[in-house]
Amino acid sequence: MVILNVKFPEEWPGWKIRECQLNSMPLASGNCTRTSVTVPSEDVITVKVDPNLDTDPFSDSPVFRGEFQESVLFNNTPAVALKFAMRDDLIDDLVKEAKIYSGPLAPLQGSACPRSYGLYVGAIDGGMNIACLVLEYCGRVLPMPFPLLPLDLRVKILQRLGEIHRQGLLHGDFAERNVLEKDGDVRLIDFDNAVFGHECGCDMNFHPGEEAPEKASFGCDRLWEVCKHAMQIWKWFVQFVTIIIIFYLTHNAQTQVS
């Protein structure tokens, strides 16, 4: 068993508790018994929470940024995301997501999705059950709608989504809020709504900037719909979005000058 010791800031607008200890929860997904991180039994890992918040600390599912403290196990991990669940139904969702990370997403950790450092459970505030999924910190959510992103970034997101499809998974909640970007690289997150059993025949040639291919020959109806409607990567959409971006930048520049 691994103990996760979470240390909270002395002064911040978040929880009043200053420290909590949670126990690792063994994970298995289907016939897969792999875990995302191998750690010695009875080890203690400590994470210090960043006082700068990007989330509502009083929600039932806050996500805090943190750093491992004096850990030889994760000394190459500069930052992590602590995804908490504070209600029984949300804990169930987090358990499902953790199993997906340790199961079908295990080969994609560090590329299409963040690395997972395990799920930890316990109780705080007089017995309230909580769970915490510790993930690699991979940046912030996208700052604008998909169609306004540079075309190459949209294609990169599609490639990551395609890798997940090839593992037999549909994301289940694919949206801007579930895509992280850092230094031009992207990761997909939030897999508690993922659907198993998907068969994807797409060759991952998305034909960006070209005429839309026939849906029947694309190999995956779901990815075709994402390309056309969410990402708008095909010719007519690319031209239209380019005009919108030019108008936006010109209008914004004129506003700043005036």
From TrEMBL:
Gene3D superfamilies: Transferase(Phosphotransferase) domain 1. This is Non-specific serine/threonine protein kinase.
